[in-house]
Amino acid sequence: MNTKKKFLKRFSIKKISILTDKATILLTINKYSFIIDKLFNKLILKKILEQAFNINIQKINTMRLIKKKTYKNTLYKKIIITIKKNENINLFSKLKK
What we know:
Distance between the termini: 41 Å
Strand order of the largest sheet: 1-2-4-3
Number of helices: 4
Helix content: 25-40%
């Protein structure tokens, strides 16, 4: 299995969309938030998300989540992606209205 398929498989398992109050406010300005595995970088994420959702990403912000006392390292990253105004992700199209 090549590395691209491994990343796609791992992304599909670990991807969680965030639907908090702040995240729903970000939906109005075309910013979407996800929790992903910590091994991804911005370049890989951009390729995966553009292929998976058929969108053009303008910007990606990443941040590590606060680590718990039981873990030595953080396990996940939080990402916020910004897309163009005329595009949307089908997962969130009902919430955006």
